[in-house]
Amino acid sequence: MKHLLRYINKLREYAGIKLYVNLVGMTVISFLEGIGIFLLVPALGLIGIFRMDTGGIPFVSGLVEPLKAIPEGARLAVLLGGFTLLITGQALMQRKQTNLNLEIQHGFIRYLREDIYRGLLQANWAFFLKNRRSDFTHVMTNELLRVSMSTYLALRLSTTLLFTAVQICFALWLSVKLTAMVLICGLAVAVYSSKFIKRSKNIGDQTTELAQQYIGGMTDHFNGMKDIKSNMTEAQHLSWFGALCGRMEHNLVQFGKTQSASQFVYKVASVVLISLFVYLSLEAFRVPAESLVLIIVIFSRLWPKFSALQANWEQIAQSLPAFKSLADLERECAAAKELDSLDAAADGKPLRMAEGIECRGISYRYDNGGSSYALHQVSLSVPVNTMTAIVGKSGAGKSTLIDILIGLIKPEEGEVLVDGMRLSNDDGFSLRRSVSYVSQDPFLFHASIRENLLIAAPEAGEEQMWEALRFSASEEFVRQLPQGLDTVLGDRGVRLSGGERQRIVLARAILRKPSILILDEATSALDSENEAKIQYALDRLKGRTTIIVIAHRLSTIRNADQVLVLDNGQVIQRGGYHQLSADTKGTFSKLLEFQAGVRA
Ligand SMILES: Nc1ncnc2c1ncn2[C@@H]1O[C@H](COP(=O)(O)OP(=O)(O)OP(=O)(O)O)[C@@H](O)[C@H]1O
């Protein structure tokens, strides 16, 4: 419930005065609709369609009595004219209110989307390591829609409640006994129906879980489609999908059945109540006929409101788990927040390093408190404008070390110093702004080469783009593409070969003019000729840029000024390439031996 209130507050924050105008509009429209119907019966009495004395009925008499001054022959025309005006006015207001409704509802969805996405972008990398990406997609699609719709529904519920309360007052005025009786019955039905609310909430829990599995599964399947096709595991995936869809279908049908069961209870209760009501009015309380007609009109309008309240409340109860998911994500993002403002992050200046980066005694565990260290007591230094190579077996801790060096994750113990100083948070961001990082799994957007390049350096001109492409040995193949720079690359660059993708990502990294260039297995998919071209280009960068290279193919690091050999989260050897390869007992020369043709 507290989550629901929190999002109602957010809606108030977002919509401001517009929301109140809308709520008042909804209430006024309900009143106009009510007045039209209430007046219909006495008005028909007035023009003699049936006999009815409205003099004793409060409110109605005030509205109907002045009509008696109109000559009898003109009454029908005036009445119908008035009725038409009233309903037209109501329809006009309804139209305006529907438009405002749409604006507020869709605006609120946009507001929530931006808010959650901003929260995610402001969170640190450790947060993303802990969570499944598809869960974010799930919250930002299914859950967010359920939350925004139900928040709005909750507000509409409040106007329905207000309108119902006014009608109850009116009915009390007409007959306290009968109204009290109906209210007690209504309350009894509501108490009985509370089990439907509980059931809806349980179904909602399953809805959340199933939708999460659906998005997660779909993301995995589409990402792994090549594996699915090449290993011919289509049937297994379809069977998993079919089972999940079956459970989703069952879940939705269950909710529909819960709603229809509660509506059935309300319908049966209404017919029992009305029969009892008419019987008691006529036989026991002897209520005047005109009051009885009005009360029946009022309650025939009021009772559907009760059942609508029940249905709406079930809908909200079904969405309560979505409120929790969204609130949890917001809370976790806030706890992992590293950036106060994305604008400030974009406008900041890159750090200009004078001496280099140093790590002192750093340790890191992914499973905080667990026994396995990804890095343990690592100390090293990376002098400015030199090339440092980090090598070691798979799982030795190379990528973790890079993540710590650039401040993506914080070490559990030890410190990272730049030019001998511990970095403040802001300095950490400045450091990241001066870095271009090409990861093991290079990422290209489903956009043109030009757009992919400009993401890194929006101000870069055509000539700078070609220069970067030349650096990464991609100029030739890009010129041969039918649309050149404007060739669209497909999902994650699927229309390019692995090596071509790596080269475009490298060009993007260079275009940013970084002072620190980090290449994590960035040339692993290249043929020897293109790799040699990039080696040559990197050599030319030496002395101007600090380069850190992670490489399994040791031929690529021959020109490194320093080689660090990592094993099991520790630096076990360090020195120049030739120095380490000459140490025949060391791990590095053993690694070299494994690679044919790479012996020093
Ligand atoms: N997100 C993660 N969650 C849990 N453990 C992780 C995570 N990432 C890495 N590890 C573990 O931390 C250790 C170091 O991993 P890291 O990726 O730094 O190794 P690496 O030397 O870069 O390996 P590779 O050459 O295969 O990329 C490994 O034991 C790995 O299983």
From TrEMBL:
A Pfam family the protein falls into: ABC_tran
TM spans (from-to): 20-50, 73-93, 153-174, 180-197, 264-281
GO molecular function: ABC-type transporter activity; ATP binding; ATP hydrolysis activity; ATPase-coupled lipid transmembrane transporter activity; cysteine-type peptidase activity
Sorted UniProt keywords: ATP-binding, Cell membrane, Hydrolase, Membrane, Nucleotide-binding, Protease, Thiol protease, Transmembrane, Transmembrane helix, Transport
Membrane association type: Multi-pass membrane protein
Gene Ontology CC, one term: plasma membrane
Compartments, as annotated in UniProt: Cell membrane
Annotated SMART domains: AAA
Family annotation (PROSITE patterns): ABC_TM1F, ABC_TRANSPORTER_1, ABC_TRANSPORTER_2
Predominant location category: membrane
Domain ABC transmembrane type-1: 23-318
Residues in ABC transporter domain copies: 357-593
Record-linked PANTHER family: ATP-BINDING CASSETTE SUB-FAMILY B (PTHR24221), ATP-BINDING CASSETTE SUB-FAMILY B MEMBER 6 (PTHR24221:SF654)
Record protein name field: ATP-binding cassette domain-containing protein
Species, as recorded: Paenibacillus sacheonensis
Biological classification of the source: Bacteria, Bacillati, Bacillota, Bacilli, Bacillales
